[in-house]
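User: Sequence for LOB domain-containing protein below. Tokens please.
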Amino acid sequence: MSNSTRCAACKSLRRKCPQDCVFAPYFPSSNPQRFACVHRIFGASNISKMLQQLPVNLRAEAADCMCFEATSRVRDPVYGCVGIISQLQQQIIEAQCQIVKTQGEIAYHNAQQQQLLPQQQPPAQILDHQGEPSWLTSTQQDPSYLDPQLFADLYQQSPFH
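Assistant: Structure tokens for LOB domain-containing protein:
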């Protein structure tokens, strides 16, 4: 590259931008803040080493990752991107708790509705080859079977309701 079209890295480092500059494809002169942030956290020498050790097809993604990590570290010097990951994990846990709570509420209300319905004669039970009711063995074998009473009990014990 010529001096007039130096990449952001070479401009920042006040040097000529060689034709085969490892920084040029990933730190264009149009975005000098990107290199400044990454340089502040990793240093130009480390960035260069990391990029040169990677195959060309992975360098753009590595530069993006370094930029994300550096930006996160500048915003939060203690936790960096780990702070973001922790926040997202907490949101997942909260969403999972909300799902369990909602399932408990649904089971509780379904159990209430079952109690309000007039008692009907249960359908004739079909026995399996071991003499057990077929509904019993099929629900015991099906791992996706969830006992609605279990969710109703959890809902009653939940501090959220």
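Residues 3-75 form one domain.
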